[in-house]
Amino acid sequence: MENFNNYLSQLIEYRRDFHRHPEPGWCEYRTTYMIYKKLKELGYNLKYGKSITEEKSRFGVPDSKTLEYFEKLALESGIDKEFLEEIRGGYTGVIAELELGEGATVAFRFDIDCVPVQETSCTEHLPYTLGFSSTNDGYAHSCGHDGHMSIGLVFAEIIARNKEIFKGKIILIFQPAEEGVRGAKAIIDKGILPKIDYIFGGHLALSLEEKSSFSAGSTGFLASRKFDVILKGKASHAANSPENGINALLAATGIINGFNNIPRHSQGSTMVNVGVLKAGSSRNVIPENAEMQVEVRGENNELCNYMFEEAANIVENISKAYKCQYKILEVGSSLSENCSSELVDKVYDIVERSKIYNNIHKAKEIKGSEDYTYFMKHIKENGGQATYMLWGADIKDSFHGSGFDFSEESMINAVKSLYEITKNIL
Ligand SMILES: [Zn+2]
Questions:
Q1: Mean pLDDT of the chain
Q2: What is the rounded distance in angstroms from the CA atom of residue 263 to the CA atom of residue 306?
Q3: 3-state SS assignment for residue 128
């Protein structure tokens, strides 16, 4: 077996390249091309484009202007024109397979999108001082998915180079649009995944902000539903004929107050947040339009649905009271799901034996949402097992913060853990 540490410079090279070119969910054109090119070179069978995501489940695809903007950017960065044609319109992501004879089928999922946040140009921010900051204004890899993809690509290379020692089938899912929890369900609903015995997902750090730590599983996945509320009223002169108008902005504020007055639930924690409200056109016009971006979460799926139904009821009735027309557009969702305890135990033992990390946990709480939960549910329902690991990393700033950064050397331990797990199972 080759020395893993030789791969660190490769990991850093990938990571900095992805970091320089962040692309948001369903717009990961250049990212998809870079992954495709590398995996093809390594001899993987590849699926991509319209064949990997179900049309009616592709929630929250950006408007055509945004898609075209990132398509143009990807072309300018030198991606193959014919390849772009195949993924144009937001058909991003790659699924790679490697058949290595009789044995179990093992899948690994890596998320590939960035966050709509402006990266800092503070001199303490390493990506800035070393010159690999985001070149896309308003977008940055501030959740570490640049690291996840790099881990995935180097892992893919190590598997391909050592394939004679494995028996079974390897599936690598480079999933688009994790932010806003949109991509996973679209892949599951497409029905192209074979029966999978084991699936592994993971994240750098999250609740393990310390690079010598590892968690074999995770708990506390919050179920979430993301939706937009679109209100249509009627414009009118604010002084001359306000009684002829229908004020969509006021309806929106009524709805927002209503959301925050939904009773808490005795069965567990629930959350609601309106993160964006856009309304009105001018100082002297009764606002005709209002749009808001909302999310509700719950400790389990029932609590999340309770929040969604209460919120939908408020939208309907407040809109009626203000005589507004309304629409609720669902744009993403994730589940509350548990890792398979048998697989968590197995991973714990493997990683402990391999002495990669000093502090190993069975399961850490993440207190967030992940659409990987759709993979977990699907694979478990079909008789397989699933876990979501945390690869410890030192973190700068906070997740989704403008100065987010992670210790790059942490990627090598993540690759080692994946390799040890694969060696053990296949
Ligand atoms: Zn993330």
A1: 96
A2: 10
A3: helix
**In angstroms, rounded to a whole number, what is the distance separating the alpha carbons of residues 100 and 182?**
31
Low-confidence residues in the chain, pLDDT < 50: none
Task: Note the pLDDT of residue 2.
Answer: 64
Distance 181 CA to ligand 1 centre (A): 10
The predicted pLDDT at position 3 comes to 78
Residue 35 alpha carbon to ligand 1 centre in Å: 18
Distance between CA atoms of 110 and 122, rounded to whole angstroms?
Answer: 29
Q: Does residue 120 contact residue 105 with C-beta atoms inside 8 Å? A: no
* pLDDT at residue number 34: 98
CATH 3.40.630.10 describes domain 4-220+336-425 = yes
Instruction: Give residue 426 CA to ligand 1 midpoint distance, Å.
Output: 28
Q: Classify domain 223-333 by CATH architecture.
A: 2-Layer Sandwich (3.30)
CB distance 173 to 196 below 8 Å: no
| 147 CA to centre of ligand 1 in angstroms | 10
203 C-alpha vs ligand 1 centroid, how far in Å? Answer: 7
Q: Give me the amino acid identity at 223.
A: A
Q: Choose among 367, 373, 180, 366: nearest CA to 269.
A: 367
Residue 369 C-alpha to ligand 1 middle, in angstroms?
9
H helices present in 21-108, as ranges = 29-41, 64-76, 81-87
Domain ranges (residues) in the chain:
4-220+336-425, 223-333
What is the tens place of the pLDDT at every residue in 310-322?
Answer: 999 999 999 999 9
Per-residue pLDDT reduced to its tens digit, 227-259: 999 999 999 999 999 999 999 999 999 999 999
